[in-house]
Amino acid sequence: MPRSMQWKPYVSQTARRASVTRDAKAAAARGESWTPVQPEATGRKITTTVWGAAWCENLERYRDFENRLPRGRTYVRNGSVVHLAIEPGRIEARVSGSDMYRVEVRIAEVDRRRWANITKACGADIGSVVEVLEGRLSAAVMAVMTASHTGLFPEPSEITMTCSCPDWATMCKHVAAVMYGVGVRLDVAPALLFALRGVDPSTLVGTGVRGIVGERGRDAAVIDEGDLGAIFGIEVAQDVAIAARGKPKPKPKPKPKPKPKPVAKQTGAKRSKPTRDR
C-alpha cells in the first residue's frame, strides 16, 4: 500500500485528550517537561504582538507553504501542539493527531554578513533592547527586519522539517501547526526569535548603547535575563539567554590560600621566675 494511504482511523477529541494526558505523564516520568501552545488571540488571529504576527506573515507569503498552512492554523487553535521548545537553530515539538507525532524543524543561523547589514541599517533608529523586544520599532526598521532574502526571518531554503506522520508532504499539517506555534511563543518571549536565529538583539542598538531610559532620565547600560523577565513577566531560560549573548567565559578558579607556617619552638635557657625581696 502506498505510504500516502497508510492513514490511521479517525480519533475523537475526547480520546485524543485522554491520550495526550497519558503521553504527558509518561514524558514526565522520563524527565521531560512538555510546554503546550495556548494561543490567546481571538477570532481569526493566532498571535497578539508585532513579533508573533511578523513570524506568521512571513510564513504565509511563501507559496511553498500556502496549501498546508490552513490546517496548521486549525491544529494550533484547538490545542493540538502539546509541546513546543525553541533553542538555537532548532524547534522540537509534539503534535496530537490520530497518534502523537514528533516534529523537528531545523533553521539555519543568520549569515554573519547579513546580520551585520541588518544592524547597520537599524542601529541608528533603535534606542534600547526593550524597544526591540516590545516591537516599538519604526516602519522603516520593521521593513528591514522582515525583508525577503535580507531580513531576520527565515526563507524556505533555510528551513528543514521532519514529522513522524505518514504524510509525504514537506510541510504536513503537524509541521504547519508547529510553525504557527512559534509565532504564539514569540508573543510571550520575543527573545526566542533571536536565539533561534543565533544572533544577539543588543547588537541592534549599535555601539552607542543608550539603554532603557527611565522616568528619571537615567540610562541603564546592561540588560540581563533577570531584567527581561521583570519587563515581560516571563522567565528567560538560561540556555536561551546564553545563546543570545554567546557562551560566558569561565570564571577563574580561586587560588588556594597558603597554609600557615608552624611556629618554631623557642630554644635556649629557660627564664627563672623572679624572686621576691626578703
Q: Count the helices. How many?
A: 10
How many structural domains? 1
Residue ranges: pLDDT <50 for 5 or more in a row? 1-5, 207-248, 267-272
| Strand order of the biggest β-sheet | 1-2-3-4
What is the CA-CA span between the terminal residues?
A: 126 Å
State the shape: globular
Instruction: Using the CA coordinates, give the radius of gyration.
Output: 28 Å
What does this entry show, briefly?
By secondary structure, the chain is α+β, with helices and mostly antiparallel strands.
List the helices and strands and how they pair.
Elements lengths: L12 H17 L20 H11 L8 H9 L3 E7 L2 E7 L3 E8 L4 H11 L6 H6 L4 H8 L12 E5 L9 H16 L2 H6 L15 E2 L5 E2 L4 H8 L5 H8 L33
Antiparallel strand pairs: 1-2, 2-3, 3-4, 5-6
Helix pairs in contact: 2-7, 3-7
Question: Can you characterise this structure?
Answer:
It is a single chain. The chain has 278 residues and is of the alpha+beta class. The chain has one domain (34-245). The chain has ten helices and six strands, in the order αααβββαααβααββαα. It has a four-stranded antiparallel β-sheet, with helices on both faces. It has a two-stranded antiparallel sheet with strand order 5-6. Mean pLDDT is 74; it is low at 1-5, 207-248 and 267-272.
